Amino acid sequence: MGAHPIDELMKTAMESIRDMVDVNTIVGDAVQTADDTVIIPVSRVAFGFAAGGGDYQGQSDSRSGSDNSSFPFAGGSGAGVTIHPVAFLVVGKNNTIKLLPVEHNTTIDRIMDFIPSMIDKISPLIANKKEEEEINKNSKEEKKQQEPF
């Protein structure tokens, strides 16, 4: 008995999907800018595949009562691909790496992005405060030493 026609449909669809699957589909080709920053796109990829068919007996065959096993075949197959950009991986000077998401969906993402800049702004204030405390402490000690007993 020969191969069923659905086998050929599935084989063709799977070969087409195999041709589409590539690492560059998910992690795109790197792009280098003029200031030596490298940008790499990252995507989410979803593949779908379906195949089906059936053998159908014609009306003339059912009346004649013949046992012909080669009924007409009807079938089909299909595949689909969805590509959704997720983020960009940015490799800057001094090998600094940042992941820049395409969508900021949650408040947590915004807070996480805001924290480094907030720390950069607060750090000098804390250092200035410590310096002022040291100066005040030293000036109090000097005053105590100058006071007569």
Would you kindly provide a written description of the structure presented here, covering whatever features stand out?
The protein has 149 residues and is α+β, with helices and mostly antiparallel strands. The protein folds into 2 domains: 1-103, no CATH class; 104-149. It is 44% helix and 30% strand. The protein has 4 helices and 4 strands; from the N terminus they run ααββαββα. It has a 4-stranded antiparallel beta sheet with strand order 1-2-3-4. The longest helix is centred in the last third of the chain and has 40 residues, at 107-146. It is rod-shaped. The mean pLDDT is 77.
Which regions contain 5 or more consecutive residues with pLDDT less than 50?
A: none
Number of helices: 4
Percent range for β-strand residues = 25-35%
| The number of domains | 2
SSE order in H/E notation?
A: HHEEHEEH
Mean pLDDT score, rounded? 77
Q: What gap, in angstroms, lies between the N and C termini? A: 117 Å
> Structural class from helices and strands?
alpha+beta
Estimated radius of gyration: 35 Å
> Can you list the strand order of the major beta sheet?
1-2-3-4
